[in-house]
């Protein structure tokens, strides 16, 4: 009996230990429960926040001593004796605050998520490899090594990250490592390059080639041209229309092949970043400001996540003293200011990714035809480790003269497509590269320095705004832009003809740019770069409303103060509503409307076109507009059921309502009677009113809830995001807050005798969910408030502010 | 009763020290060895280890928490109140210790009576 009891107890104990030690026990997504809950090294060790204390540390990788001062928001102010040491310290500190974010971002970009998350990430990883992300990052790192400075910076940063990782005990691993049950691995320069490619993928990979090809094939050329004009006549481009182009453009050979018949693709498109991934920046000259000094504003819009995409930092060396936001994984400051200038960025919407159809020469698909000659593909075998599999998955990616064949299918109805993308080219920026651009901006003292710094920047192309204490303001649509003939890259191209290739790149001194325009301000909001007088052809996805509104507002403003710029960044007024509401109301047949419908119309007519969180007309307008859009373009929506398509732009839709309300396009395919704009818009209104009935009658329900903004955790781990945030804003308002997308950093810099700056981002300095600094700035951001940024000139000054100080001494 | 308290205090102290640098399961063999050496009866061993384990894990978790982490963990686990997360943590520690203690005590009981009895 005693034996039996003992054996039972022993078995139960072993079973308990076994169960608590399992990763993903019994099919769940849980980490090993024993080590996870163990307060001595598990998750409870991640209750951080009170851990920052003044310290002295000895670090082998430093040449000279470095002092880092953390202010009350835990912003590091790095004081270093040389630039390499500064980037070493930046790497060390960024890792301390954001190690998991850095790790997972590099994995996501390079296709290594299945290694830690298992099978369900495999398709995503395969696609990243097929898109050549890792290949491109390797090429970028090769190129960086040609530039001694850039090589040294990345290596110092990498060393800093790795020295931090090395002294970590497992108990100190960031929470997500414990949740996902894996350990940090060393940082590498390739990972910094991957972070760049990650930004390129987010910002300059969007294209409509497949959708446009299919839509044109289905609608026919005439209808396509009618629905998709390339230029919005109301556009207010980034470079003012007064600009004249004082250079001789490179001549471009005309199109020799014009085989439009081949343009029919059944492929499902690969997932794309959202369109018009927005951002605003502007700089006003002293002539327009209250105290005569320029003011620069920038709010880049990105996916909103926790940890935040941005890490705030000040870096002081004998060469420069710069402050701003950095990307966790990349040395230097991406958006910011120094003692002389300020700079900021918005994304350029130009299409720099084209697809080429491959004509195979053999059934095995190892050779393809180019100008009638057989060319072998170069196969690069990607090894993907998958959690739970013993053998890595091998993905053979075929490379052509165009780039990797991303779409390859055994099904003969599909055509195999190769990807030509500027972000695959690494050597464009010689003698230095993207990395050098940011550091050279940090060093810049005036317009000439800024302009020179930008010439080495390739991708993702950005509208770099500039202002200096000398009083200059400027903007440059900057990056590596292919030389394209008209409509090149609008549709899938014939990859069997080398004449279809890009004919080079626009010289860096011929990109659209302007210094000190007469109107006293420069601005950009992802709209078209120029008017149609610019000698080079370009296409892309361009915003049609924010830029026009910004130019209208700034044009009318005088004696501008910093507070005016803050109000403008938080402006919820929409030009799309200003033009869209009358267009819809003007075509509404109001006979026989019920009480609720009449109420909606009354409210909509009285609406001020502001997407405030408590607005009700805001969600009626957006719902009605999209319902009318759907009914009008029902031909295209029907097509979308089995293929990739592209949709007309809203500005064109509104224009058609005014200009051509009896056009065939308004006729619905599913009814025998012919419809016009009035029928479709009325029908859309009735449907919308019905579907919104309950919401409209609920006194507490408003635009804020309809929009449903929240900031989720990067890996969508529940409980680690903000949950619902009650906040106004709209994709087409300057304050472009959407569901999980919006202003990721709001910055305003006044370039007076003293530089003064304000900023806020929706998150916090710390990437640790157990820290009070993980999301401490969200509320301020939500309310449209700013922090005054502590821009110190010496360590003494910052220490005097009563901050925590680290003294890092070199080990050698 | 003295044995019970001695065991309880010993487990708390040794458990704390060893857990600082050894993995989560170390509390189980410590409880087993202590129960074996002190010859606790199974019921006593179970009770004393359970309480010691609960206190060690739960207490240390409460000590470490900053009011933010426990809330996030609760939200992560489907909106549990943070108090329940402490309870869960304590239970894991308590169970690990209790199973060790009872196994050690039962193991001692099956040893031939002569071997240890006269020491």
Automatic annotation (TrEMBL), chain A:
GO biological process terms, semicolon-separated: antibiotic biosynthetic process
Protein name as it appears in the record: Penicillin acylase family protein
Show the active-site residues: 279
Q: Which UniProt keywords apply?
A: Calcium, Hydrolase, Metal-binding, Zymogen
Q: Which PANTHER family match?
A: ACYL-HOMOSERINE LACTONE ACYLASE QUIP, PEPTIDASE S45 PENICILLIN AMIDASE
| Organism expressing this protein natively | Flavilitoribacter nigricans (strain ATCC 23147 / DSM 23189 / NBRC 102662 / NCIMB 1420 / SS-2)
**Domain of life according to the entry:** Bacteria
- Give me the residues that bind Ca(2+), please: 351, 354
Family, per the entry?
A: Belongs to the peptidase S45 family.
Q: Would the keyword Cytoplasm be found if you checked this record's keyword annotation?
A: no
GO MF annotations in UniProt: hydrolase activity, acting on carbon-nitrogen (but not peptide) bonds, in linear amides; metal ion binding
Q: Does the keyword Transcription regulation apply?
A: no
What are the names of the required cofactors? Answer: Ca(2+)
Under InterPro entries, the record lists:
Ntn_hydrolases_N, Pen/GL7ACA/AHL_acylase, Penicillin_amidase_A-knob, Penicillin_amidase_dom1, Penicillin_amidase_N_B-knob, S45
Free-text cofactor note = Binds 1 Ca(2+) ion per dimer.
The cross-references to Pfam families, in alphabetical order and at most eight, read: Penicil_amidase
TrEMBL record, chain B:
Q: Which residues cross the membrane?
A: 6-38, 45-63, 83-102
* Alphabetized UniProt keyword annotations: Membrane, Transmembrane, Transmembrane helix
Q: What organism does the record attribute this protein to?
A: Flavilitoribacter nigricans (strain ATCC 23147 / DSM 23189 / NBRC 102662 / NCIMB 1420 / SS-2) (Lewinella nigricans)
List the taxonomic lineage: Bacteria, Pseudomonadati, Bacteroidota, Saprospiria, Saprospirales
Q: What is this protein called?
A: Uncharacterized protein
Reading the lineage from the top rank, the first entry is Bacteria
């Amino acid at each position: 009996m005693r034996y039996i009891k003992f054996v039972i107890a022993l078995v139960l104990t072993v079973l308990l230990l076994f169960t608590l030690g399992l990763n993903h026990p019994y099919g769940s997504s849980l980490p090993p429960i024993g080590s996870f809950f163990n307060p001595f090294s598990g998750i409870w060790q991640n209750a951080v926040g009170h851990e920052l204390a003044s310290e002295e540390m000895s670090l082998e990788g430093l040449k000279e001593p470095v002092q880092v001062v953390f202010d009350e928001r835990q912003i590091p102010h790095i004081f270093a004796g040389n630039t390499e040491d500064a980037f070493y310290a930046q790497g060390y500190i960024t890792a301390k605050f954001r190690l998991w974010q850095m790790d997972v971002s590099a994995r996501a970009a390079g296709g290594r998520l299945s290694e830690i998350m298992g099978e369900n990430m495999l398709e995503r990883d395969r696609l990243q490899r097929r898109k050549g992300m890792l290949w491109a990052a390797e090429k970028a790192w090769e190129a960086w090594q040609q530039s001694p400075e850039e090589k040294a910076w990345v290596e110092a940063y990498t060393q800093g990250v790795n020295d931090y990782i090395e002294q970590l005990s497992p108990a100190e691993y960031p929470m997500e490592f414990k949740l996902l049950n894996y350990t940090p691995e060393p940082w590498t320069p390739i990972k910094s390059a991957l972070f760049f490619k990650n930004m390129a993928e987010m910002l300059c990979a969007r294209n409509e080639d497949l959708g446009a090809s299919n839509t044109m094939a289905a609608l026919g050329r005439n209808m396509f041209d009618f629905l998709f004009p390339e230029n919005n006549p109301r556009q207010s481009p980034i470079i003012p229309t007064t600009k004249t182009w004082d250079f001789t453009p490179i001549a471009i050979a005309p199109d020799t092949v014009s085989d439009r018949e081949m343009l029919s693709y059944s492929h499902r498109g690969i997932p794309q970043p959202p369109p018009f991934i927005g951002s605003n920046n502007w700089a006003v000259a002293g002539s327009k400001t209250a105290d005569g000094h320029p003011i620069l504003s920038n709010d880049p819009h990105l996916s909103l996540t926790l940890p935040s995409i941005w890490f705030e930092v000040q870096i002081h060396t004998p060469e420069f003293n710069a402050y701003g936001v950095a990307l966790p994984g990349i040395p230097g400051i991406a958006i910011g200011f120094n003692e002389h200038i300020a700079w900021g960025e918005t994304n350029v919407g130009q299409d720099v990714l084209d697809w080429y159809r491959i004509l195979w020469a053999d059934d095995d698909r190892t050779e393809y035809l180019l100008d009638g000659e057989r060319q072998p593909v170069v196969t690069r075998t990607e090894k993907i480790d998958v959690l739970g599999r013993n053998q890595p998955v091998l993905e053979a990616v075929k490379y052509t003269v165009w780039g990797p064949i991303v779409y390859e299918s055994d099904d003969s109805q599909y055509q195999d497509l190769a990807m030509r993308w500027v972000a695959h080219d690494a050597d464009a920026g010689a003698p230095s590269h993207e990395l050098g651009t940011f550091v050279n901006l940090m060093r810049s003292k005036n317009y000439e320095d800024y302009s020179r710094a930008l010439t080495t920047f390739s991708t993702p192309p950005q509208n770099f705004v500039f202002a200096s204490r000398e009083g200059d303001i400027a903007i440059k649509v900057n990056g590596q832009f292919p030389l394209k003939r008209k409509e090149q890259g609008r549709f899938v191209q014939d990859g069997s003809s080398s004449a279809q290739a890009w004919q080079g790149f626009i010289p860096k001194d011929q990109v659209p740019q302007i210094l000190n325009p007469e109107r006293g301000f420069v601005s950009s909001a992802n709209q078209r770069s120029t008017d149609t007088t610019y000698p080079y052809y370009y296409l892309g996805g361009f915003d049609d409303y924010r830029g026009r509104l910004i130019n209208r507002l700034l044009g009318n403003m005088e004696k501008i103060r910093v507070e005016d710029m803050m109000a403008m960044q938080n402006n919820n007024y929409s030009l799309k509503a200003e033009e869209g509401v009358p267009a819809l109301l003007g075509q509404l047949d109001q006979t026989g409307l019920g009480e609720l419908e009449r109420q909606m119309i009354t409210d909509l007519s009285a609406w001020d076109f502001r997407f405030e969180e408590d607005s009700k007309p805001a969600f009626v307008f957006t719902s009605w507009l999209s319902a009318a859009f759907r009914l009008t373009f029902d031909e295209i929506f029907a097509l979308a059921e089995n293929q990739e398509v592209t949709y007309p732009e809203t500005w064109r839709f509104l224009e058609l309502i005014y200009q051509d309300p009896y056009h065939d396009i308004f006729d619905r395919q599913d009814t025998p009677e012919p419809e016009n704009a009035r029928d479709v818009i009325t029908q859309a209104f009735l449907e919308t009113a019905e579907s919104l009935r309950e919401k409209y009658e609920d006194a507490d329900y408003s635009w804020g809830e309809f929009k449903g903004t929240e900031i989720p955790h990067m890996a969508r781990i529940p409980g680690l995001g903000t949950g619902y945030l009650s906040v106004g804003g709209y994709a087409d308002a300057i304050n472009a807050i959407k569901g999980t997308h919006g202003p990721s950093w709001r910055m305003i810099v006044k370039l007076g005798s003293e530089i003064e700056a304000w900023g806020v981002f929706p998150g916090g300095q710390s990437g640790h969910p157990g820290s009070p600094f993980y999301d401490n700035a969200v509320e301020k951001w939500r309310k449209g408030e700013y922090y005054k940024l502590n821009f110190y000139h010496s360590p003494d000054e910052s220490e005097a502010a009563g901050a925590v100080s680290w003294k890092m001494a070199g080990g050698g | 009763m003295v044995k019970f308290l001695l065991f309880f205090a010993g487990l708390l102290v040794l458990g704390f020290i060893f857990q600082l640098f050894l993995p989560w399961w170390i509390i189980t063999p410590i409880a087993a060895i202590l129960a074996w050496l002190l010859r606790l009866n199974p019921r006593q061993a179970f009770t004393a280890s359970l309480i010691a384990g609960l206190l060690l894990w739960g207490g240390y978790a409460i000590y470490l928490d900053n009011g933010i982490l426990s809330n996030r963990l609760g939200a992560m686990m489907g909106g549990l109140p943070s108090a329940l997360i402490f309870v869960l943590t304590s239970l894991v520690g308590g169970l690990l210790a209790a199973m060790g203690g009872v196994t050690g005590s039962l193991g001692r009981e099956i040893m031939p009576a002569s071997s240890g009895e006269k020491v």
